Amino acid sequence: MNTKKVALMLLELANLMELRGDNPFKVNAYRRAARALENSRVSLEVLRERPEELAGVGKGTAAAIREILETGELEQLKQLKEELPAGLPSLLEIPGLGPKSIHALYRELKITNLDELEEAVKEGRIRNLAGFGEKKEKNMLEGIRNYRERPRHHLLVHALPIAEKILKRLQELPEVSRAETAGSLRRMKETVKDIDLVVATEAPSAVAKVLTEMPEVTKVVASGEKKVSLLIDLGLEIQVDVRLVAPSQFISTLHHFTGSKEHNVRIRQRAKEFGWKVSEYGICDPAKGEDFAFREEKELYEKLQLPYVAPEIREDRGEFERTADELPRLIRLEDYRGDLHMHTRWSDGTGSIKEMALAAQKRGYRYIAVTDHSQSLRVAGGLTAEDLKRQREEIEAVNEEMKDFTVLAGVEMDILPDGRLDFSDEVLKELDLVIASIHSSFQQDEETITRRVLNAMENPYVHIIAHPTGRLINRRGPYALHLDRVFQKAKETGTILELNSHPYRLDLNDIYLKKGKEEYGLTFSINTDAHAPEGFDFINMGVATARRGWLEPADVINTWPLDQLLERLNGNHS
DNA sequence: GCCGTTTTCGGCCCGACTGTTTTCAGTCG
């Protein structure tokens, strides 16, 4: 049992209570308690003894927390699970269906899952229910079909160019004075459900008309004076929500729709302490009838006597509990000096060492490490010890040609299924940089696969563990790795953990980065794993994820000057 | 269920849009 599991159980309880139609404020109380638990760093002991010390945890939720810690279960949750059919929560995925409607469908028509809902719609049974009609039936049917066909979340890297394209069109309109992206896209979450845009204009109807008449629009979901919601097909079909506001309200609206929802709740609560009200149109003082507008988001935070919070960390994950000095100076692209994980034609890359070096130098980098695959990874043309020696000769030749730039000789070495490494220490000690990673036997049980990684970390020549959890977003889950043990070992051995920037990987993710930094004091390396010069472009994904993980330049070895980097790498060997 | 230098009761973040209604509930962000 750990605090995360306790939080998850409280959250599940809240979700089921909501479906049953319980008091929404009570439901919210459990959600807040779950969130408080997730964000707190109290030990299990403190949690067991004095859970009430956490803000948002009172008598009721404290009793629930104690029960979970003592018995591993929660009677209330167990009963609710027996009372409510298992398929009910899945109905929440259908747009337009919320807890109230789902409860009514269950109560009146005994609908418990998507199949039964679809059947009832087709038989026209739903339109007879109070508050339902033919139009809602039609929307439900469409929702069910979409749910089954469309991926729930789009990769950030796929949504970004679409957002940019629409944004550009909007910015070119004479009626538009300013337009920006908002929502999870602006917060740079690894996946996004939709694209949020905020537009400043004095002529909302004209802009709305342009939007709804774009050739790529497949469906107008909603269209009003303040807001337009569309389904757009620009290579992939995605929902685009556009808010239209007067220029003076732009900043407040941008902030509001950047979210996150949880961050906004805290903002509003903060405003209430001053007796003010926050909405997407600004902050107002009802007592004096005053409205406050802002030219920059910084001013909005200042008004509430809060330090400015970058969009990427607006998640209510502790940003409200820090002073300006305590908030991180988040890493930026300009801080980045060199990529330390890439492949060349020597294995499965498409560029030569020199081409990769020149491309990196052009980006303003000062160094790179060439890290081709090792011998066991046959499909990728892994290198033998002998190949590595010959490759080093080429690397040295490139180094002699280039000015103010250094290519390090490295390898991405496989951690074999039985836990052995693909090269002996004699081979490894000749290299400048050794990355170890898993490319086989992903299905091993937790103990086996964790042992594999720990074993690699214990080797003094291994500097970095690449893409530590192995997940591929929307494709493949993480290995059954026990990450706390990996973090603990990294702390003991000084092993650096990678944040792999490939948009399908982003591994470690934001949550783990923050945890590794705050709880274990770890150091990380952000790399693109490029297989061609263009692969370097994905560094913006990695830096964005690092920002979401509260990382500062000092936490990331790729921002260090070369001599500091080499000192750290050599330190491992002593 | 939680919380309190306006409160131990009565609030709890706020507004837009849709579809159902004939003044509003539910959903969404």
From TrEMBL:
It holds the Pfam family HHH_8. Keywords: DNA damage, DNA repair, DNA replication, DNA synthesis, DNA-directed DNA polymerase, Exonuclease, Hydrolase, Methylation, Nuclease, Nucleotidyltransferase, Sodium, Transferase, Ubl conjugation. One of its GO terms (molecular function) is exonuclease activity. It comes from the Bacteria. CDD domains: NT_POLXc, PHP_PolX. Signal peptide: none annotated. Residues 338-417 form the Polymerase/histidinol phosphatase N-terminal domain. Its main location: cytoplasm. Its cofactor is Mg(2+). Residues 49-68, 89-108, 124-143 form the Helix-hairpin-helix DNA-binding motif class domain. Residues 1-315 form the DNA-directed DNA polymerase X domain. It is found in: Cytoplasm. It catalyses: a 5'-end 2'-deoxyribose-2'-deoxyribonucleotide-DNA = (2E,4S)-4-hydroxypenten-2-al-5-phosphate + a 5'-end 5'-phospho-2'-deoxyribonucleoside-DNA + H(+); DNA(n) + a 2'-deoxyribonucleoside 5'-triphosphate = DNA(n+1) + diphosphate; 2'-deoxyribonucleotide-(2'-deoxyribose 5'-phosphate)-2'-deoxyribonucleotide-DNA = a 3'-end 2'-deoxyribonucleotide-(2,3-dehydro-2,3-deoxyribose 5'-phosphate)-DNA + a 5'-end 5'-phospho-2'-deoxyribonucleoside-DNA + H(+). Its EC number is 2.7.7.7, 4.2.99.18. Repair polymerase that plays a key role in base-excision repair. During this process, the damaged base is excised by specific DNA glycosylases, the DNA backbone is nicked at the abasic site by an apurinic/apyrimidic (AP) endonuclease, and POLB removes 5'-deoxyribose-phosphate from the preincised AP site acting as a 5'-deoxyribose-phosphate lyase (5'-dRP lyase); through its DNA polymerase activity, it adds one nucleotide to the 3' end of the arising single-nucleotide gap. This is DNA polymerase beta. The lineage of its organism: Bacteria, Bacillati, Bacillota, Bacilli, Bacillales. The gene is polX.
